[in-house]
Amino acid sequence: MNLLPRSCGLSLLCAGLLAASGHALADGFTPQKTLESVFELEGNAPWSSPYDGSLTFSALGSKFATANGHGYRNELKIGKNNRRPIEQTHEHFAATITPTLSNGAKTIVAQYHVDGLETILKVYVQDTEDRGLLDGKDNNGVFDIVVKILGTDGVDAPTALGTIRSGESFDLDIRFDNGVATASAKTAANGSIRTAATRIKGDKRNIYFKFGDYLQALDPATNGFTSSPAKWDEYYRLHHVNSDSIRFTRTIFERE
Questions:
Q1: pTM of the predicted protein model
Q2: Nearest CA to 171 among 180, 157, 182, 183?
Q3: What phi, psi does 150 have (nearest 5°)?
Q4: 143-189 confidence digits (pLDDT tens)
Q5: Beta-sheet strands, E only, within 178-219
Q6: Domains of the chain, CATH where assigned
Q7: Dmax of the chain from CA atoms?
Q8: Is-contact 24 32, C-beta < 8 A?
């Protein structure tokens, strides 16, 4: 796959994208200019300089807040003009990810979002209590990697993909093809784990991919969701979540 739209033809723009795609294969990562032509930035610029396929995100460093968010974020998201419906989305994302996080932190490093508020795929890195995961214990320095995919039954089903500690790396691979999603991770502790191919619940709206650091927070008084940055700050303070960095290397994004 590459970053050429299906209606590309032989225009100068498409010729440029074709050259960029070939460059990505040669260097082992997607060029910055190609990513910038597809994605919009939320928060601080993550690019390495010179760009070598590495991006570093920090939600606490950016403190970027959205109206319906549940914590600060620093992400790249596909721009509105580049979004497609589920059945027309054929995309592949891969990277080596190195989270450096405080014990007890929980962040989303990649997700597919529907135009609106719903999500259909989310990849978490979390040191929080969650039964059924490989560790699932709160605040012990072991971070579960878990993906949740919304199937046709409407269930946001989780799959445990491995465990790491802060500063350790894992390989992430996500494929979305004509309404069917798969995700896999490779960790030193657990090897390679892949989800079953999951057909996504149908939706006629456009969808879009995001990746980076979306640091989760709750209302410290009720432990429920809140869109108040002041309450996020208090939640982070009470849970000693005071540093975060999510580094992506060998970053590849391809689409047909």
A1: 0.90
A2: 183
A3: -85, 105
A4: 999 999 999 999 998 999 999 999 999 999 999 999 999 999 999 99
A5: 180-187, 191-194, 198-199, 206-215
A6: 40-255 (2.60.120.200)
A7: 58
A8: no
